[in-house]
Amino acid sequence: MIPIPMHRRGDAQCPTDLVLLSHPLAFIANNNFCVRRVCTEIERIIGSEALDREAAQKVLHFLNEDLPTHLRDEAEDLFPHMRRRCPPEDKIEQSITRVMIDQGAASALLPRVRKILTQCLEAPGVPTAPEAEQLVQFMTHVQRHLIAETAILLPLARVRLTTRDLQSMSLRMKTRRQFTSGDIFC
Length: 186
Ligand SMILES: [Fe+2]
What we know:
Layout: H1 6-9, H2 24-47, H3 53-85, H4 92-122, H5 129-160, H6 163-176, H7 181-184
The protein binds fe (ii) ion.
Fe (ii) ion (FE2) binds next to helix 3 and helix 5.
């Protein structure tokens, strides 16, 4: 099997290495990997008898700092480029709509999820049964968005987006993270 180069798939490290911002699709793919890891941590928190504070803090940090920016990368950069580049036979609008419905639902639940985890850290304790149910709902939407992106959107983006599209995405994603052109261009 021919190995996939790192700049195409990410390096499976969390948090995502900012050097990958020069390869925006790899950056998004790697961030999706981190989202998956966060879901695994939330599952572990739900199933445990005592709170793993370090895990809860890491999850909370990701939800506060990384996830909102990741969702903006997709909604404001990836999806518009795909709408412009994909031919009708890709039925891209259908796939984007599907992902955005789950992203919207996950975003709506995000404040509640943050509150549950913050309370668990303050108490300290593990989520109650109703809280666990809300965390599961959040993860269901997040995981559905991951499946559609990994199976449909990112493979199509690798084929359809042009070098200029990728350069534009890279620049905007760096700017979103307040990097200037001298910082991490490579
Ligand atoms: Fe994503």
